Amino acid sequence: MLTKQLMVEVDCPSTSTSLPILHHLSREALQNLEEEDQIKKCFAINEGLINAIQYSDRTNASISFSIIKTEEYTDFIIKNYGAQISDIVLDNLSTQTFDDVLWEESGRGLLIINEIADEWSFSRDEQGRNILKIRMRDELYD
């Protein structure tokens, strides 16, 4: 069986002025979900976008946002040039709770993504860009 797939990719400045259009694209991609689930999942994606913008390298201040939608899932892929997330931070996500970071100024974004996303991964490509991939499954196929 051939899987239907839709892909959208946007390259934009790494500034907060890009957030409204990227948020709109996220909501449209998840429009088949119940409103509460859509809001929660868009919140996780927005955290990834905010982190990409906040930690972007200012000499190459752009981000790439891709949405790949199939019948079973929607992938959101955020790429930026910036500092790599340390292995310590990534390893701590399996044991960290919201109580651990409640009073911190930052550090909740990946924890939120970890809690809400069906799957997610962080890597770097051969060009040195950070790649955050967030997968949201379509509830009809769970």
Low-confidence stretches: none
Physical arrangement of strands within the biggest beta sheet? 1-2-3-5-4
By DSSP, the count of extended strands is 5
Beta-strand content: 25-35%
Helix content range: 25-40%
Let me know the largest β-sheet. 5 strands, antiparallel
Number of distinct helices:
5
Mean pLDDT: 84
Order of helices and strands: EHHEEHHHEE
Q: What would you call the structural class?
A: alpha+beta
First and last CA, distance = 19 Å
What does this structure look like?
The chain is an alpha+beta fold. The chain has helices at 19-29, 35-54, 87-92, 98-101, 109-116; strands at residues 5-13, 62-70, 73-81, 119-124, 129-137. A five-stranded antiparallel beta sheet has the order 1-2-3-5-4, covered by helices on one side. Strand 4 and strand 5 form a beta hairpin. Helix 1 (19-29) packs antiparallel against helix 2 (35-54) and helix 2 packs antiparallel against helix 5. It is globular. The model has no long low-confidence stretch (mean pLDDT 84).
